[in-house]
């Protein structure tokens, strides 16, 4: 009901009633109903902003695109990790794309370390940049590592931590990932914190126990949740072409949010974005995005393809929620 409609009702009720007390009570009730309705709308409008991250990993950009298109995905994984010119072409594609505004979706791309300055200098201002990893503490004699301080010096606002490839291949423990997240946040970086189970763990029925333990190791060490996006990435669906069904993704996201409510706070559970990663593509993104607890995506191989734009556009599914 509009303000004008309420005013008309005020005049009508005062005119029709012989009791000014009754009229005033009715008017106050009308205003209360409108206020409650507007509060509900405000809550929806102030919900979790959709988030789409593109993890370029360590693959050749244009060759990955072409080889995937011609059904040679395995070969595309083993070629070199790209050139500056290839990176510039990918950035140009992103810069020319028409996507929803920043009010609707937050977009972050994560190129390999050596290309961070190039991408930062060329990328459109409404897209942000993430590093793919950083060291667990202040820099020092740690050959091959990149410190959080270095990322800040480059003006990189985001970092991906705890990705399954680092957990499984480089044996990063839950505690080590938790320490990395805490240190990065302490310096002002924003973190995409990854959790997820292997196929063996899912088939044994331990998905939530695994994901809860990974999340617990982070939650015990941090308080700055507004700067954290949790990425649920079932390991068995990363780069395999297998995708958790929308129902499976929603189930884990719901349980993760419930875990945050029970173990951190209701506010953190309500406001923290939980995104899905695992063979997300242009064909399945809208159905996944429609699930109430799926707040976006962390995209691997498809982030190097034109369909990444379609994935970003899937944010409009949530626009009117």
Description:
- By secondary structure, the protein is α/β, with parallel strands linked by helices.
- The protein folds into two domains: 3-41; 50-317, TIM Barrel, CATH 3.20.20.70.
- It contains 15 helices and eight strands.
- It has an eight-stranded parallel sheet.
Reported CATH architecture of the largest domain = Alpha-Beta Barrel
Q: Please identify the oligomeric state.
A: single chain
Tell me the strand percentage band. Answer: 5-15%
The total count of helices amounts to: 15
According to CATH, the fold-level topology of the largest domain is: TIM Barrel
CATH homologous superfamily annotation of the largest domain = Aldolase class I
What is the number of beta strands? 8
Elements, N to C (H/E):
HHEHHHEHEHEHHEHHEHHEHEH
Average of per-residue pLDDT values: 84
Order of the strands making up the biggest sheet: 7-6-5-4-3-2-1-8
**CATH domain class name of the largest domain:** Alpha Beta
Shape assignment: globular
Cα-atom radius of gyration = 23 Å
Low-confidence stretches: 1-46, 61-81
Query: The biggest beta sheet, please?
Result: 8 strands, parallel
* Number of individual domains: 2
Q: What helical percentage do the residues reach?
A: 40-55%
Measured distance between first and last alpha carbons: 20 Å
Helix-strand makeup class: alpha/beta
Subunit structure: Homodimer.
Family: Belongs to the triosephosphate isomerase family.
Keywords: Isomerase
Pfam family, one: TIM
């Amino acid at each position: 009901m509009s303000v004008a409609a309420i005013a008309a009702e005020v005049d009508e009720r005062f005119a029709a009633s012989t009791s000014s007390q009754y009229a005033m009570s009715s008017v106050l009730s009308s205003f209360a109903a409108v206020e409650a309705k507007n509060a509900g709308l405000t809550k929806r409008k102030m919900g979790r902003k959709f988030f789409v991250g593109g993890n370029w990993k360590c693959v050749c950009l244009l060759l990955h695109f072409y080889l995937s298109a011609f059904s040679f995905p395995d070969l595309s994984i083993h070629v070199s990790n790209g050139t500056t010119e290839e990176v510039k072409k990918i950035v140009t594609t992103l810069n020319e794309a028409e996507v929803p505004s920043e009010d609707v979706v937050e977009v972050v791309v994560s190129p390999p370390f050596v290309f961070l300055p190039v991408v930062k200098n060329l990328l459109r201002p409404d897209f942000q940049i993430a590093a793919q990893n950083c060291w667990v503490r202040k820099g020092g004699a740690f050959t091959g590592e990149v410190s959080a301080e270095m990322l800040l010096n480059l003006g990189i606002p985001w970092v991906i931590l705890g990705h399954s490839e680092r957990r499984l291949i480089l044996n990063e423990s839950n505690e080590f990932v938790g320490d990395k997240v805490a240190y990065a946040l302490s310096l002002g970086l924003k973190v995409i914190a990854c959790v997820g189970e292997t196929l063996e763990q899912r088939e044994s029925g331990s998905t939530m126990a695994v994901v809860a333990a990974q999340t617990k190791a982070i939650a015990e060490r941090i308080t700055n949740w507004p700067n954290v996006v949790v990425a649920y990435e079932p390991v068995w669906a990363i780069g395999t072409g297998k995708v958790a069904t929308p129902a499976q993704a929603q189930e884990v996201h719901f349980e993760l949010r419930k875990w945050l409510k029970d173990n951190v706070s209701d506010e953190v559970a309500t406001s923290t974005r939980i995104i899905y990663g695992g063979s997300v593509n242009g064909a399945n993104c809208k159905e996944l995005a429609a699930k109430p607890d799926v707040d976006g995506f962390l995209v691997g191989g498809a982030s190097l393809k034109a369909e990444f734009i379609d994935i970003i556009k899937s944010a409009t599914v949530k626009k009117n929620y």
